[in-house]
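hiii, so i know i said id send this last week but things got crazy w the move. better late than never?? heres the sequnce for the chain we talked about at the cafe, plus the structure i predicted for it. fair warning i was half asleep when i ran it
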Amino acid sequence: TALLAMRANVPVIPAYITPKFRFFRRMHLYVGNPIPFADLREEGINSETCQELNRRITACYAEMVRAHG
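okay and structure toks below
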């Protein structure tokens, strides 16, 4: 995910669906703010910057689960 986003220079917008998906059941979709990574792109696209972006993505989802899970 991080490598594709950094190479394409597109925003990473997190989305969280709760509860577990079932047909014909009410679900809630939460969409977060774009995850910034311009600073990482300036450092170059490499394994370290991709790992950092993945860490940011994981932290964002963890926060969404805590808030809405």
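btw The mean pLDDT is 92. thought thatd interest u
miss u guys!!
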